[in-house]
Amino acid sequence: SLSVEEQFYLIFPLLLLLIYRYCKGNWRPFLISAALVSLILSISGAHFFPSAAFYLLPTRGWELLLGAFLALGLFPQLQNNGARNTVSLIGLVLILWSIFFFTRLTPFPGWHALFPCVGAALIIYSGIGGTSLAGRLLSHRVLVFVGLISYSLYLWHWPLMVFAKQLCSGQHAAYSGAAVVALSFALAVLSWRYVERPFRKKGTMEQRKRLFTIAAGIMLINVAFGVGVDVSQGWPGRFAGKLITLNCDLKTYNLGTCFLREDQDITEWQGDKCFLQSGKATTTLLWGDSFAAHYVPGIKDNLNLISSNILQYTAGGCAPVFDFNPAYRPRCKEFSARVEHLISSYGVHTVVMAAGWKLALENGLTYDALKKTVDTLRRQGLRVVLIGQSPRFDQSVQDISNRARILETSVSESELSMDIEAINTELRNIAGPDNFVDPSRVFCINKRCRFKSRSGFYFWDDGHLTALGSRLSVEYIFSTLKI
Length: 483
Known about the structure:
Blueprint: H1 2-22, H2 28-48, H3 50-55, H4 57-71, H5 81-101, H6 114-126, H7 133-138, H8 141-168, H9 173-200, H10 205-231, E1 259-260, E2 275-277, E3 283-288, H11 290-293, H12 296-301, E4 309-315, H13 332-337, H14 339-346, E5 348-354, H15 357-362, H16 367-378, E6 383-387, H17 397-406, E7 413-415, H18 420-431, E8 436-437, E9 444-445, E10 448-450, E11 452-453, E12 456-457, H19 467-481
Parallel strand pairs: 1-4, 3-4, 3-5, 5-6, 6-8
Antiparallel strand pairs: 2-4, 7-10, 9-10, 11-12
């Protein structure tokens, strides 16, 4: 938000000066055209390059220009109370719609951004030259006060949320959430009273000079502190060697050749080089995302358990479902569409499908779409096997372990907040009991899961397996499935 606004504050005044100087004040065609181009870029960008569309000015500029049109008087004033009330209520409904009906699956900004932006513009517009129902509602003292402290509230709540998550380790979310809300409001009120108001208050030049000197001094101290932390890499000496660092060499997943990065084209998958085992009578295709690729080290260590060739076909973020095309991985549908060609080209007999199912379900995957994919493959005479959801912790196991080391306690397991059993029950129903295996059985009892033992760590982040974890998982999976 701030980065876009700062660009707007710097660029827009210069744009207006140029229009005023060279176009004799005829700004309408230029700004309207700029807003339309920005909106079109936003709609296309939300699908093709969602991160850039969210953060960059060209795709968000139309939202700011919408407010500029109001300030510059592009629209005639509403002349009667009925019109003002109707327009204000439509604006309020649009904002409420975006609050209650937008989800994490809603592409944004794109055309969905019209709801909150046009809604806000209509409420402002309805208040030009008179009052409205929404205007009177939003003028309530409580709401006005929240508005007054809103900027401080915005600044305070993020660091508090981060610290609360670290301190509470993902547990007691309701209590920590309530505490964060209460503390955010309390600090926001203090910031508003003792920082914002004095800063805005008119005073003598001497007073303002003193204020800016103090602010500059505090900023320099913060910058010096930040540089010191960065240069020292977090002052690790304060922990006296207590901390551990977990890294994974993704080459063990065959990254870049058989496990494609998000920036790679699907043509970069390297076919014959992706056989983990060959020379057998039948061929099994391992299809999925990084949570399929993390079984590769274990497969290589347990080839004696596997009686078929294993062909790896994996890509980051791409769950093995034909119709799955998440906004954050626009190539997934194209990647999955090649599977049927691979099956015929390599004489595949069995398809093993694995994924971070919970993440995929949160980003648009449906069980119906998965079942449709399974049914499509089975109609071709293939055996289709689903590997269930493996443990996903609320944070990195490195962080969990290091926090325990700092507190001089010992921990080797953590409770999952996700309902892993519910997900795996759905997957078992789709695959059938003879073609499903639950990898969480290796590490978990109910929702409590081990992430390390004396032999080492089973996971290296919040859910991807280490070589040790992969080996143990594959021993269980393939001794159960008999592929």
